[in-house]
C-alpha cells in the first residue's frame, strides 16, 4: 500500500502537476484563452443539449442508464487505447523493478488518471441531462446514485481487464515482443460490445428486482477485481517484453532522387507508414465510419442527422488536425538530421504540406462517400469544404511548429484547435456566407498567412545553408 501511494504521488501526480506548472509559466495567456474557449464551447453544448432534451429527451431511467454505460465504455476504450504505452516509461519501470509493489496495484496506478479523465468527460456529457431532469421536477434517488457509482467501478475494471486480456492473447498468438494495434483494438471493441449487451440484458431486472440488481453489481465488481488481479502479472510481463523495439534499417540513399521535393515526399511517406500515431488515427477513422453507419439503427432520422453533423464538425476534425501536427513534431525531434539534408525550406515544407492535405482530403471524401452510399446522407459544398480542410491543415501544421507536441499536451492542443477553428469557421461563414467567392478568398488568404508564418519565421536555418 505504501508503494501504491508512492507511485500515485511521486509519478502520476508529480508529473501531472509539474507539466501544468511548466505550461502555466510558459503559456499563461494561451492557457487562459484556451480555458475561455472551452467554457464557451461547453456552455453552447449545454444550452443546445438542454433544449434538445427538454423537447424530445428520454426520461426513462433505465434508458438513460444504458446510454451512460454505452458512452462510458466508448470513452474508456478510447482512453485505454491511446494511453496504452504509459507503462513503458522509465519512471514506471524503475519503481516496479525496485519496489515491492504488486502487479495489480501497479497497473491501476498507471491507468488511474486516463480512467478518471474518461469519467469526467462522461459526467460533462451527461450534465445537461441531469439538469433537464431537475428542471422537469424529477428528483434523483439515492438508489440510482449508488448504482451509477458502482457501475463506474465495474466498467473501469472490466474495460481494463478486457484490454489486458486481448493484449496478452495477441502477444501469445502472434508475437510477444511486437505490438499489433489493429488486432488488439478489434478484439477489445468486440469484448466491449459483449459487455454492453450483457448490461443491456441485465438492466431488465431493475424494474422487477432493484435490490437484486444492486447485489448483482457488487458480485460483478468482485469478479472484475479478481479477473484484473489474475491478469496483471502476465500483462506487466508482456509490456516489459515489448520494450525492445526493433528498428528497421533506413537509408536516405534508397529514396534519394534528383528532385529534393520528391525526396522529402518519399521520406514523409516512410515516416507516415511507420508511425504509431497514424495507426491510431486509422483505427479512429474506422470507428467513426462504423459508428455513423449504425446510427439509423439506434436513433431517429432527426437524431441521426444531428449526430452526423456533430461527427463531421468535431470528431472528424480531430483526425484532420492530428495528422499535419506531426510535421512540426517531426521537425523538433529530427532537426539535426533535417539540417544535414541541406535542402531548401520550400522543398521541405511544401512536400509535407501537400502530402497531408491530400491525406486529409482523402479522409473527408471517403467518409462522406461511404456515409452517402450506406445510409444515404448527402453532403453539399464540397469546394468550400476542400478550402476549409486546406486552412485546418496549414493551421495545424503551424501550431505543430509553435508548440512541441508530447503525449501530455497532445489532447489539450487538439481540443483547443478544434474549438478555435470551429469558432473561426463559424465567424467566416456568418460574415461571408452571402458571397461564396469572397468566402473562398478568405479561406485561401488565411491558409497563405499560416503557411508564410511557418516558412518565414518558424522554419529556421540551417535547413538552407
UniProtKB/TrEMBL annotation:
The keyword Membrane applies. The chain crosses the membrane at residues 29-52, 64-83, 104-135, 141-160, 181-199, 211-228, 282-299, 305-327, 354-377, 383-403, 410-429, 441-459. Keywords: Membrane, Transmembrane, Transmembrane helix. Signal peptide: none annotated. This is Uncharacterized protein. It comes from Bacillus pumilus.
Amino acid at each position: 500500500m505504501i508503494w501504491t501511494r508512492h507511485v500515485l504521488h511521486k509519478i502520476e501526480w508529480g508529473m501531472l502537476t509539474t507539466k501544468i506548472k511548466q505550461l502555466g509559466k510558459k503559456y499563461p495567456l494561451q492557457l487562459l484563452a484556451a480555458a475561455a474557449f472551452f467554457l464557451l464551447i461547453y456552455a453552447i453544448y449545454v444550452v443546445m443539449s438542454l433544449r434538445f432534451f427538454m423537447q424530445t429527451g428520454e426520461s426513462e431511467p433505465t434508458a438513460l442508464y444504458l446510454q451512460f454505460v454505452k458512452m462510458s465504455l466508448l470513452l474508456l476504450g478510447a482512453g485505454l487505447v491511446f494511453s496504452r504505452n504509459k507503462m513503458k516509461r522509465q519512471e514506471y519501470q524503475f519503481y516496479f523493478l525496485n519496489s515491492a509493489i504488486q502487479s495489480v496495484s501497479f497497473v491501476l496506478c498507471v491507468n488511474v488518471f486516463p480512467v478518471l479523465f474518461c469519467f469526467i468527460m462522461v459526467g460533462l456529457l451527461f450534465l445537461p441531462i441531469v439538469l433537464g431532469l431537475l428542471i422537469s421536477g424529477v428528483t434523483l434517488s439515492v438508489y440510482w446514485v449508488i448504482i451509477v457509482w458502482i457501475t463506474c467501478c465495474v466498467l473501469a475494471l472490466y474495460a481494463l481487464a478486457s484490454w489486458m486480456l486481448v493484449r496478452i492473447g495477441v502477444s501469445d498468438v502472434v508475437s510477444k515482443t511486437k505490438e499489433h494495434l489493429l488486432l488488439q483494438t478489434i478484439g477489445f471493441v468486440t469484448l466491449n460490445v459483449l459487455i454492453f449487451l450483457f448490461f443491456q440484458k441485465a438492466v431488465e431486472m431493475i424494474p422487477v428486482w432493484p435490490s437484486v440488481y444492486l447485489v448483482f453489481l457488487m458480485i460483478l465488481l468482485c469478479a472484475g477485481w479478481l479477473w484484473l488481479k489474475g491478469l496483471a502479472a502476465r500483462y506487466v510481463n508482456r509490456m516489459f517484453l515489448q520494450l525492445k523495439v526493433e528498428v528497421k534499417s533506413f537509408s536516405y540513399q534508397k529514396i534519394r532522387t534528383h528532385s529534393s521535393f520528391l525526396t522529402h515526399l518519399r521520406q514523409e511517406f516512410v515516416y507516415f507508414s511507420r508511425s504509431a500515431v497514424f495507426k491510431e488515427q486509422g483505427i479512429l477513422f474506422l470507428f467513426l465510419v462504423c459508428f455513423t453507419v449504425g446510427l439509423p439503427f439506434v436513433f431517429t432520422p432527426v437524431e441521426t442527422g444531428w449526430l452526423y453533423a456533430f461527427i463531421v464538425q468535431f470528431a472528424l476534425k480531430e483526425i484532420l488536425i492530428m495528422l499535419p501536427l506531426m510535421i512540426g513534431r517531426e521537425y523538433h525531434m529530427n532537426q539535426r538530421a533535417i539540417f544535414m539534408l541541406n535542402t531548401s525550406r520550400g522543398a521541405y515544407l511544401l512536400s509535407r504540406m501537400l502530402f497531408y492535405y491530400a491525406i486529409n482530403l482523402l479522409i473527408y471524401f471517403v467518409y462522406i462517400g461511404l456515409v452517402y452510399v450506406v445510409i444515404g446522407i448527402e453532403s453539399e459544398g464540397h469546394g468550400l469544404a476542400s478550402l476549409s480542410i486546406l486552412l485546418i491543415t496549414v493551421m495545424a501544421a503551424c501550431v505543430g511548429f509553435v508548440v512541441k507536441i508530447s503525449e501530455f499536451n497532445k489532447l489539450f492542443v487538439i481540443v483547443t484547435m478544434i474549438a478555435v477553428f470551429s469558432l473561426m469557421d463559424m465567424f467566416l461563414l456568418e460574415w461571408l456566407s452571402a458571397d461564396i467567392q469572397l468566402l473562398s478568398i478568405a479561406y485561401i488568404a488565411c491558409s497563405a498567412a499560416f503557411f508564410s508564418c511557418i516558412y518565414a519565421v518558424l522554419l529556421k536555418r540551417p535547413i538552407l545553408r
